[in-house]
Design a protein that fits this description.
two-stranded antiparallel sheet; mainly alpha; transport; coiled coil; elongated; 2 strands; Exocyst complex component; exocytosis; 811 residues
Length: 811
């Protein structure tokens, strides 16, 4: 039972599923029927489904057949009615065709008449429209004709205005005509033509101001010079109620105005009116030398055309190029002042024009652009001046250049350009000017020193005396009391050098003028330059004279006297500088003159040269010495060369009477010491291998002659026996050997009060060795000692003891 129920349930479920699939097949599109059929084949009841499908198809066929049978009679009736309508329609068509033929025949003439009327009305309308259009086109053609005439007569600014009216007022009314389109197409070309012509005028203007910059700058600098001269006159002769000219009055030639920045006409556009016309002697200004109207006209044209920025950029670019050309100095500018003047004139002219453009246009150039150009010009100008001025070796040209730079700076300062860097650069040129002055004065000093006779200045009249005193500050009451003729103690180079120092100070002062320096700065500059003149230039000149090979003792003595007097005159130079600068020497920052040091150094060098010269003369005499070191004869007088040497020294020291006592004493002591040293070297030199007692006796006579000279007091001021101490070493050595007092020497050696304190055992041993060699060859030894000891043994014993002293001294 249960199995039968389960089979029945499964059969019902399968039938329901087949029914559902059939409904999906009936309601689903053919493209989507695949999944439905697949579900049939996936099942196990395929045969039963096919049976149900066949049953369903037969049902649908029966329904279709029933519906066709139901509507068939209606279809037949409709066909019958349609056949009847076709016959009636054919009849109607025939009637319409006949009626149309009759109407066409009857209306043919009317159509012809109406066509003629239509053509007449069309012609009338066209004529009226043509008249109206011509009335609109005539003003356009008239304006275009006017435009062409203005272009031909080069009245470009009115032409531009006419073009604006034509484009914006007239052409829009007739824009659909072909000739108007041609005009519209030509308008950009006309504008470009106007721009090109005005640009050509601008280029001519730029070329004109390039050519006239030199003249404009020259005129501006003349104005500045005239104003400065006028200011100096006013400062020197002040008057009540007098008024100094303002900047605008003083330089009105360049500060001009125009009533409007837009031109009134082609002729008056850009023409400038000078404000001050009362001055009949007005120097021509920029507007008189250059016609500025092209730049104004071109500016307005480009402004109207909307290309003002393009014009401004072009103008500034071209002017920058011109500025670079102007700022490029010629290679030979440093050779003449005219080269510098032309260079400055071009720069001034350039910036005067730019300043004029700045004040007479609205924005073509601005202050920032001018300042940028000026910064470039200032740096390039300063660099060029530094380079070219360094080639200049003429102080007069440097001074003229400084005055020209000051005028250049003052001129540009009037127009508002900062010129502090130029004045700073002038301080650099001041150092160069000082160097050129030092070179020039170096030559002057050399000529003075070379041409001097190094003899006291003789004067025979009161006028000559006053002339010398007027040139050099010298006061000597005793000399004033002496009768004529008389002599100044110094030679001619003293007043000449003193006056040249003053001339140098004046030259330094000239450069400081108009540099806007304080009195303290001027004083400091002059003092520093003068110190360089004294310590370097004059000092070198004096040193060169002193070091000359052919300089004589007389010249050296005179140089010492001259430098002594120049040293005393330094205080007068201090006063001279104080008087011209009005700065007291007690001021805190005042530089002191180093003249005293300079002349002291020169005097000391001359003194050293005297000492050296004297020693050289002594050496020359000593070269004449011809001792016979092997002689056995005892001499009776000093050698001839030494007598001549002493005579030379006496005559030389007699000339030293005008020298300061210390100098003469030092020279005398130096000569005696050098003579004593040279004689000692002569006695001990290695070439003298043997000597005899006779030779020592002759040498002793020469030393006595020297001692006699020292005792005679060749130069006053020495204490007793002071000068003789120069020969003390020789004296004690010779006494030791001649007296053969070895026992005393050996016993007292090393004691502070010993008799032969100045005798060195090495020196004594050297000389003793020379005599020992002699004793071996001859029998003269008995003349030295009266005792009976063996000569050779005695010398050997003394020599041995001397060696013992030497070794003990070294240990």
């Amino acid at each position: 039972m249960e199995r039968g129920k389960m089979a029945e349930a499964e059969s019902l479920e399968t039938a329901a599923e087949h029914e559902r699939i059939l409904r999906e097949i009936e309601s689903t599109d053919t493209a989507c029927i695949g999944p439905t059929l697949r579900s049939v084949y996936d099942g196990e009841e395929h045969g039963r489904f096919m049976e149900k499908l066949e049953t369903r198809i037969r049902n649908h066929d029966r329904e279709i057949e029933k519906m066709c049978n139901f509507h068939y009679q209606g279809f037949v009736d409709s066909i019958t009615e349609l056949l009847k309508v076709r016959g009636e329609a054919q009849k109607l068509k025939n009637q319409v065709t006949d009626t149309n033929r009759k109407l066409q025949h009857e209306g043919k003439e009317l159509v012809i008449a109406m066509e003629e009327l239509k053509q007449c009305r069309l012609q009338q309308r066209n004529i009226s429209a043509t008249v109206d259009k011509l009335m609109l086109c005539l003003p356009v053609l008239e304006m275009y004709s006017k435009l062409r005439d203005q272009m031909k007569t080069k009245r470009h600014y009115p032409a531009l205005k006419t073009l604006e009216h034509l484009e914006h007022t007239y052409l829009p009314q007739v824009s659909h005509y072909r000739f108007c389109k041609v005009m519209v197409d030509n308008i950009p070309k006309l504008r470009e033509e106007i721009k090109d012509v005005s640009m050509s005028d601008l280029k001519d203007f730029l070329e004109s101001i390039r050519k006239h910059s030199d003249k404009i700058g020259e005129t501006a600098m003349k104005q500045a010079q005239q104003q400065r001269n006028l200011d100096n006159i006013v400062l020197q002769q002040p008057r009540v109620g007098s008024k100094r000219k303002s900047k605008k009055d003083a330089y009105t030639v360049f500060d001009t105005e125009i009533e409007s920045t837009s031109p009134k006409s082609e002729q008056d556009s850009g023409i400038l009116d000078v404000e001050d016309e009362e001055d009949d002697e007005e120097v021509p200004g920029a507007q008189d030398l250059v016609d500025f109207s092209p730049v104004y006209r071109c500016l307005h044209i480009y402004s109207v055309l909307g290309a003002r920025e393009t014009f401004e950029n072009y103008y500034r670019k071209q002017r920058r190029k011109q500025a670079r050309l102007v700022l490029q100095p010629p290679s030979n500018m440093h050779e003449t002042l005219d080269g510098y003047r032309k260079y400055f004139n071009q720069i001034v002219g350039f910036f005067v024009v730019e300043d004029h453009i700045l004040h007479t246009t609205q924005g073509l150039v601005n202050r920032a652009y001018i300042d940028e150009l000026w910064e470039m010009a200032l740096s390039k100008t300063i660099a060029a001046l530094r380079t070219h001025s360094s080639y200049c070796s003429d102080p007069n040209l440097v001074l003229d250049l400084k005055n020209l730079i000051v005028l250049f700076a003052d001129t540009l300062q009037v127009y508002g350009f900062p010129v502090n860097q130029l004045f700073d650069m002038l301080l650099e040129i001041r150092d160069q000017y000082s160097e050129t002055l030092l070179k020039k004065w170096g030559g002057i000093f050399r000529n003075i020193l070379d041409s001097d006779n190094y003899s006291p200045i003789p004067v025979t009249t009161e006028e000559m005396y006053k002339k010398v005193v007027g040139q050099f500050p010298f006061q000597d009451i005793e000399l004033e009391k002496q009768p004529f003729p008389k002599k100044f103690p110094f030679s001619e180079f003293v007043p000449k050098v003193y006056n040249q120092i003053k001339e140098f100070i004046y030259a330094c002062l000239k450069f400081s003028e108009d540099l806007h320096l304080s009195s303290t700065e001027v004083d400091d500059m002059i003092r520093k330059s003068t110190n360089l003149l004294l310590t370097r230039t004059l000092s070198n000149a004096l040193q060169n004279v002193i070091k000359r090979k052919n300089i004589g003792l007389t010249e050296l003595v005179q140089i010492i006297i001259n430098t002594t007097h120049l040293e005393k005159s330094c205080k007068y130079l201090e006063e001279f500088i104080t008087n011209i600068t009005n700065v007291l020497p007690e001021t805190v920052h005042t530089t002191k003159l180093y003249g005293t040091t300079t002349f002291k150094d020169a005097r000391h060098a001359a003194e050293e040269e005297i000492y050296t010269n004297l020693n050289q003369k002594i050496d020359q005499f000593l070269q004449l010495a011809d001792y016979d070191w092997m002689t056995g004869d005892l001499g009776s007088k000093a050698s001839d060369y030494l007598v001549d040497l002493i005579a030379f020294l006496r005559s030389t020291f007699a000339v030293f009477t005008h020298l300061p006592g210390k100098v003469a004493q030092t020279a005398c002591m130096s000569a005696c010491k050098h003579l004593a040293t040279s004689l000692m070297q002569l006695l001990l030199e290695a070439e003298v291998r043997q000597l005899t007692l006779g030779a020592l006796q002759q040498f002793n006579l020469d030393v006595r002659e020297c001692e006699q000279f020292a005792r005679s007091g060749p130069v006053p001021g020495f204490q007793e026996d002071t000068l003789q101490l120069a020969f003390i070493d020789l004296r004690q050595l010779l006494d030791l050997f001649i007296q053969w007092d070895w026992s005393t020497y050996l016993a007292d050696y090393g004691q502070p009060n010993c008799k032969y304190l100045r005798v060195n055992p090495v020196t004594a041993l050297t000389l003793l060795e020379k005599m020992k060699d002699t004793s071996r060859k001859n029998n003269m030894f008995a003349q030295f000692r009266k005792n009976e000891r063996d000569k050779q043994k005695l010398i050997d014993t003394v020599a041995k003891q001397l060696r013992g002293l030497i070794s003990s001294h070294h240990s």
